[in-house]
Amino acid sequence: MSWDPVFRFVQQIPRGRVLTYGALAKALRLPGGARSAGRAMAATPSGKGIPWHRVVGERGKILIREPYASLQRKLLASEGIAILESRVDLKRHLWKPPKKSARKHQTPKKRIHK
């Protein structure tokens, strides 16, 4: 499976905002849910501008192991995200992806007059 759709979606998360693994999985309908989102983030290629650090665990918890957890905290802090006891305040920093609206310009159905 290619993780490219996940990487493209994560690139949309704005600076100073985060998204949970579960919300990422739900938004993309990933089979395997949050665990699949975690696998995708673990496979993020370096040097591609994918802000992997903006994806956190449920309730804002930083779940990855050292030394990457320290790097994630540092990157989030550089974006103005406060971290308290390895958690991001989701009330302040959670990103809500725009909902895909149903086709905006639907063509009306033709009425058949008898």
Explain this structure.
A hairpin with a 2-residue loop joins strand 3 and strand 4 (87-88). This protein has helices spanning 4-10, 21-28, 33-42, 68-78, 90-93; strands spanning 19-20, 55-56, 83-84, 87-88. Residues 101-108 have low confidence and may be disordered. It has one domain (4-93): Arc Repressor Mutant, subunit A. The protein has five helices and four strands, in the order αβααβαββα. By secondary structure, it is mainly α. The strands form two sheets. It has a two-stranded parallel ribbon with strand order 1-2. A two-stranded antiparallel sheet has the order 3-4.
The residue-averaged pLDDT reads 88
CATH topology: Arc Repressor Mutant, subunit A
The major sheet is characterized as: 2 strands, parallel
Indicate the overall shape. globular
Please estimate the helix content. 25-40%
Distance from N terminus to C terminus (CA atoms, Å) equals: 52 Å
Structurally, how many domains make up the residues?
Answer: 1
Strand content: 5-15%
What's the count of strands? 4
CATH superfamily: Winged helix-like DNA-binding domain superfamily/Winged helix DNA-binding domain
CATH architecture: Orthogonal Bundle
- Helical segment tally? 5
